[in-house]
Design a protein that fits this description.
The chain is built from 7 helices and 7 strands, in the order E-H-E-H-E-H-E-H-E-E-H-H-H-E. The protein is an alpha/beta fold. It starts with 6 loop residues before the first strand and ends in a 14-residue tail after the last strand.
């Protein structure tokens, strides 16, 4: 990995996506002295059977902030409506400005083939906005970011239709990953009641699967976006 201290921007569509899909890797970045920025795109307000959306949005923002604090990550809350993320002009401009604020050296986000419409839309928005954020002629509140950041996609939920090209050994950060995910108590309960899923056990199981594939106890899988000009020969994952 680069010896330069990086600004690593992780973008999740929902308040718990980052913790489910790449928190072990983010913890390793933080341990190595890199600055992590967690960006949550939607307010998560549709993710409960009983708690009403306005109240739930506040709960989920607080949960996501607490999770970010565990690794000392900066935190960006975009607050778009849950389940209704659209790739329109205003949203793209908001993503462009968010990236300009974060000033990332590398971005990690959803794979374009993931199951959820918000995940797919966020992936496309990140791809588009991370290029345009470097273009000074497109004006937003903050100045252009002078870099088109390398872009990595994290795993899909349950690893469906996702073939990693790189792995990160998270054997020493799996407990941190679990602690971060445990901050999302509204969703731990929701997923158990709504889908009969123990989400903590779920992520540990998937980390074991990826670990088996690369020869370590626990791992997270990623795929680098190959489109020009996002290439390069350095490994940027920890």
């Amino acid at each position: 990995m680069s010896e330069k201290k990086l600004r690593v921007l992780a973008i999740g569509a929902h308040p718990d996506d980052i913790e489910i899909l790449c928190a072990g890797t983010l913890a390793k970045y933080a341990q190595a002295g890199h600055q992590v920025i967690n960006c949550v795109v939607t307010d998560g307000s549709a993710g409960h059977m009983i708690i009403k959306p306005p109240e739930l949005a506040k709960i989920r923002e607080e949960e996501a902030r607490k999770a970010a604090e565990i690794i000392g990550a900066e935190f960006i809350w975009m607050g778009f409506p849950d389940e209704l993320l659209m790739n329109d002009l205003d949203t793209r401009l908001a993503f462009i400005d968010m990236i300009r604020v974060a000033k990332p050296d590398v971005i990690i986000t959803h794979a374009p083939e993931d199951y959820h419409p918000d995940h797919r839309t966020a992936s496309q928005l990140v791809f588009d906005a991370s290029f345009v954020s470097s273009v000074p002629a497109i004006e937003t509140e903050h100045p252009a970011h002078p870099l088109v950041p390398p872009l990595y996609y994290f795993d899909t939920l349950a690893s469906v239709n996702f073939l990693p090209t790189e792995y990160v050994d998270i054997s020493d950060t799996i407990e941190t990953k679990q602690a971060m995910l445990s901050c999302h108590q509204s969703q731990v309960k929701w997923l158990k009641d709504h889908d009969n899923i123990d989400i903590i056990d779920f992520v540990v199981t998937m980390a074991k699967l990826r670990g088996l594939q690369c020869g370590v106890p626990f791992a997270e899988g990623f795929r680098k976006e190959p489109a020009w000009p996002r290439g390069g020969t350095r490994r940027l994952l920890p």
